[in-house]
Amino acid sequence: MTSPVGTVRITGDDAGVSVIACLNEPAESTSPDNLPEPVQQAIAQLTEYFAGTRQTFDFKLNPAGTPFQQRVWHALLEVPFGTSLSYLTLARRLGDEKAIRAVAAANGKNPLWIVVPCHRIIGSDGSLTGYAGGLWRKQWLLEHEGIASGKAAPGQMRLF
Question: Whole-angstrom Cα distance, residue 86 to residue 120?
Fold first, then answer.
């Protein structure tokens, strides 16, 4: 699908969506009628997200990863729309602040771009650190969610 930040590739089957990735080049589109139901739902819900009418996702997910990665990705699902956390805070939520590098590495291996919101994890100083899709996409997503633009609710972290 096309989006404001580039072409989005969605991969999955009836068990759920396994990959959502942003591509730097246009890709050949597939008719939504030929796609598994979770992939069709992902396309519809991501379209709503980019239109500004959706903040959560409820289609089936089926990412492949180690048990630790799965644990980090599950924790990412608990970071609400319009908020951000530092890598250190995420590591503490997972019970071990010394695991910050492992948490950051698992965050970087997240195969479900936007839906498992790794873009909401930032440096302790508020900096935009590391993002597989490029820092400009991370900034766009944060601004889209009202974090970087100052639209976030009182008490929520703002970047600028």
Answer: 8
Average pLDDT taken over every residue of the chain: 88
Average pLDDT over residues 47-70: 97
Name every residue whose Cβ is closer than 8 Å to that of residue 131 and which is 6 or more positions away in sequence: 118, 119, 137, 138
Q: End-to-end distance of the chain based on CA atoms, in angstroms?
A: 31
118: annotated active-site residue: yes
Task: Please state, in angstroms and as integers, the Cα–Cα distance from residue 158 to each residue in 9, 31, 92, following that order.
Answer: 29, 39, 20
pLDDT at residue 156 is higher than 60: no
SS3 3: strand
Sign of CA dihedral 122, 125, 127, 132: negative
Q: Which of 5, 90, 104, 118 is catalytic?
A: 118
Which CA distances in Å does 92 have to 4, 112, 121?
33, 23, 13
**pTM, full prediction:** 0.86
Q: How far is CA 22 from CA 4, 93, 131, in A?
A: 11, 28, 11
3 state DSSP class of 22: strand
